Each structure stands twice: as C-alpha cells, then as structure tokens.
Structure of Peroxisomal leader peptide-processing protease:
Amino acid sequence: MSAVETCCVVTVFESLQENRDESGSDSLQTPRLPPAHKCLSCTGVMILNDDRGSGIVLCSGPMFSHFLISKENTFPDRQFLLRDRFSNKLEIYVQHTGKAVVPAINHDCEKIVRTCSKLYKQQNIATLKAELIMVVNCVEFRTAFLNLFKQSDKWKFYSSEGDCDLTEDCAFLSWFAVLGVPHLHESKHEGHVRWESSCVLERGWEVFACGSPFGSLCPDLFMSTLSKGIVSNLAGEDHALILTDARCLPGTEGGGLFLRKGDCDFLVGVIVSPLCWKAAEWIGLTLVCSFHLILKNVVQSLNLCSSLRRFIFLVPTPLNEALPRKGQSTAMQNFPVVVLVDSGKFWGSAIVLSSQLIMTCRHVLNGKTGVIVRYKMPERYVTFLQTIVRLKEHLPDIFVPTWASSYKPGEDVYVIGHGVFGENCGPSVTSGILSRVIESNCEPVMLQTTCAVQSGASGGAVLILSGIALESPVELLDIITTSYPPLSLKY
C-alpha cells in the first residue's frame, strides 16, 4: 500500500444508549445520535488489509482518554489498556477511500458519522464500524519525550481533544489505539503496509506526512493529504521521537510519516502532534513517534494478554527493501559544523569557519567577554571579537564551508541551528526555499527563507546544495539572524 492508500479517518463518540446487553454481547440497536461536540476524530493508518477477514488500523490514543471509565492509576507506566477500561457506549467508525462494502453499517449509523463530519454527501468514502482491541503505550517515546520537553519551557501541543500543556493533559500523547475493522479486506487497498525501523533515519532525510486535516470534517476533500519535509531531529532509543518540518494541520495526528524509495513508501512514524508551541512560540515542527517501536509494544502487550494473542498474526513484518541501514548513509556529511554558544542566560548557534574560528550573531554573545562553546565533547571556553569568536583549542575534523557566489529566489535551502532544545538534542535542520533577496547598492544584504527557525537558532547556517542529493556539496548562503513568527501563529 502507498502512503495515500493507508490513510483513513477514525471517528469516536459515545452513543446516548447502552450498546451492550448484560451478557456483554453487542446490541443490534442503532446508537442514538450524539451531540456534535461529543464526536472526536483523527487520522488513522491502515497497517493491514488482507483476505483473512480482518483489517487493522492504528491511530492516535489521546482522544480515547475522554472515554476512560476511570483515569486513576492509568498513568504513567501502564503498558496497555483493554476495551473494558473504556465506556461501553463507545462507538468507533473508520472512513477510507473506496467503494462501500457489505456488510458495513446501516444507513442510520452512517448518518451519525456524516453528521459528526458536518457533511451530508461524501463521494467515494466507505464507512465501516471498528472495534477497539487495545490502547498501547509506547514507553520508549514517552521516555524520550519527558527527557526532551521540560515543563519549565511551557510546552503546549495539539491533540485530538484540543491544545494541552505539559501536565497530566499530555500523559496520553505516547498512547496509540489498535482497532480491528471487519470487512476492511473487501476494499480496493489490500496487503500489509511497508514499514522500516526508525533506526535508519538521519537528520536531513526527505519524508512525507500523510493525514486527514480536520479529522472527519469533509474527508472527501481532505483525506490522504500529503506534506513534504525532512527529518529535523531525532531523540531517544532507536530514534523513538522524530521531529519533522513537514507541515501538518489539526486532525492529522495518527497519520503516517513515510520514507520514499523508488515507487515504494515505507512507514517510519505516526504523527503525535501536528502543532507545538514553546513559551507561546510556534516552532513549526511536527512531533512523530517511531512506528516500529509502537509495533514492538503492541506485540509485547498481545503476548501478555492471552485473549488477544489471536491478533499477533495480523501484525505486519518488516519489509527492508533496499533501504540503507544506520551508519551507511552520508547524509549531511558535507554540511558545515554548527555549534552551540552558551553565554549564561541565553544560548545560540555559531558556524565553524576553521578549527579555531566560529561566527555568530552579536546578540547571541549577550555582551559577554567569555562564552562556552559546546560541540560533541566537554565544554570549551572561548573569547570573542565582535561576531568572530576565536577558540582557545582546536576543534577536530572540521568541514570548512564554501560561501555561495549567487542568490536565486525559489531555490531549495536548509537551515541548521540549536533552536528549541539547545544542547539536549543537537542541532536541528529544516528545509524551505529562498523566498527573497534584499539588496543594497546591488549587493545582497539580507535573505528571507521559508524554513522553520526557532529561538536559539540565531548564528546558525543557511545553506544551499550544489546538487540534487543531500550528500551533494553545499554552499553557505548566510547566517541566521532572527525569525519573525507571525502573531497569528502564537498560542
């Protein structure tokens, strides 16, 4: 299945009547229409669709927390939650592109989903009832998340239930729902999703995000929307936490992040939050969890629960078709070295010009006569002269950048800087285009790009590739001086 073919929409709500009788079996009654604000939706990824009678969909877990019978003792270290921990009035429906199938759902149920979607006629959208198998916690992602995102930084994230800050509201961000969808195999998209371990990922690799912006709102318009970007940064065990500059909108949480090799798409991650803010600053990055680590936790949970072991055969196996393994790629080997400059109260970035010279912005130095430079090793103390800093010690294995001789608006560019996370996660890289060149006396004096730039990236590098491949030689265009986030994008 391609990235587009794996995309679906998951809608969840509580019916206004019991849907299970006293024996626990499903009632044949049609659930009553819920109030519109009770419907929640997000994107899902079809990870299996074959001829054995069952399909499996993976989606974001936070919206299911609204339907927990009790949240006590649920967080933070539970490995999984079964269906009986959630309301017995819970109704789940999956919408995907394709011809409607039989037996899917009756017209009354479909009307409910359409009403939740605020849509009365959907073209080429099949609606199927789903069952909740389990909600599983990706513990590796949670560990990386807590190490990287500090509450003191006033982080806020968008999830299916709206914006949440870094308190108990975010406790479910590392959880993912596993849904069984009978008769999904009758649709036109069959087979296992191709996937690859996040271990192979490197910063700078091109990736595609696929989701349904705004969830169940007009899925025939928004379902399977693609966004291209690069891997901006990685953290945690086996790269459990992935950050990408592929721009995503609310409702795409639960969607897939894909690598493309030839004509094949490989699922490497699941979108956790499409929008993130740090101290009211929108950072322009999408938060993603490693797919193979989600699968690892799903398999472990299935093995611990005897009643669910029958689902193990549905878990897709890896298809490592011609993808490089970790350590074989030369991505970013020709990029200039960008170090972190710590002036005490503030930090910024700097471009290494030689083994003893770095260049940064004056405001990064904060008026100090001595700052600390951090580069993959213990602290090194330096002094400065204006914006050119001379190190007291040599930095080893330094790639000296070449300055660009021309500036062409519309060209692809990259920026590298220690924005957002400082020394905790290494420099981040984002992509965009050179949107404008400002000249004075026929000389370029300022450049504007569409790259996502965050506080802390000042002093970093703006680069252009001399070839198509990421491994091509690069030229240094400029130094990052500031970002101007639109007020409308502030939280």
Remarks:
- Helices lie at 3-6, 107-116, 139-148, 219-222, 291-304, 362-365.
